[in-house]
Amino acid sequence: xxxxxxxxxxxxxxxxxxxxxxxxxxxxxxxxxxxxxxxxxxxxxxxxxxxxxxxxxxxxxxxxxxxxxxxxxxxxxxxxxxxxxxxxxxxxxxxxxxxxxxxxxxxxxxxxxxxxxxxxxxxxxxxxxxxxxxxxxxxxxxxxxxxxxxxxxxxxxxxxxxxxxxxxxxxxxxxxxxxxxxxxxxxxxxxxxxxxxxxxxxxxxxxxxxxxxxxxxxxxxxxxxxxxxxxxxxxxxxxxxxxxxxxxxxxxxxxxxxxxxxxxxxxxxxxxxxxxxxxxxxxxxxxxxxxxxxxxx
Length: 297
Fold this sequence. Notes:
The chain has a two-stranded antiparallel sheet with strand order 1-2. The protein has helices at residues 4-19, 31-40, 47-59, 63-84, 101-131, 136-146, 151-160, 168-195, 201-227, 230-233, 239-242, 248-252, 254-277, 283-294, and strands at 94-95, 98-99. By secondary structure, it is mainly α. The chain has 14 helices and two strands; from the N terminus they run ααααββαααααααααα. Helix 3 runs antiparallel to helix 4 (63-84).
């Protein structure tokens, strides 16, 4: 079985060059484009492209077409981080070990950069759907996962819940939307590209896996916010306590949160076994799932 670093290196060699062509030459000198590229090229785990890549390889999807969707998804994710860091939301100065976009370019251009990345992601998806209409549901689902029924809906609950202790049920819904929805898009998009809208056994297992991964990822983030450092994590630690937000750690304590994360990963492994039983090679997928809970940042 390959290591996570080997897989990530392979994914980055496949994926990173696509980011260089996000803007045409005539637009690249605009401050908005520079601010967008600053955040888009600032590193990061590229976790969503990793999941999309390993699932696509496992099921035999067209990797050139997958790349278009992976790039758009990463652009959507990056726009959400730019906006999330703004003073009107999380008010953060550090992201991926570097000053946040608004600290480098100002609130105005950071806002425009986020808007621009979201719009440009849509342009790329419209372009491929015009040529391949069979991909229309995959494109629709990606924007559904990033909209009011997904990520933005989760952010709404997050902002509304500041300075409040919320129920475990609402916390789960918050993170299913805010974190889990984009991971669902990453994991399920290759199936939509290969099969169209579907309820196949493969799709059901992958969607359940995406839910497991999203929850485990968030619990791990909550634990890292308590135990990591800014130099390791690449962003401000202790934000949850600073902003008086409910997390799995504040609601359940460290030991229970760790136990919950382990239980969710057990469910993820059950789904991986189901996918393997369908005849697919899930070795790389298992490594990336394990990375979600073993990472230090």
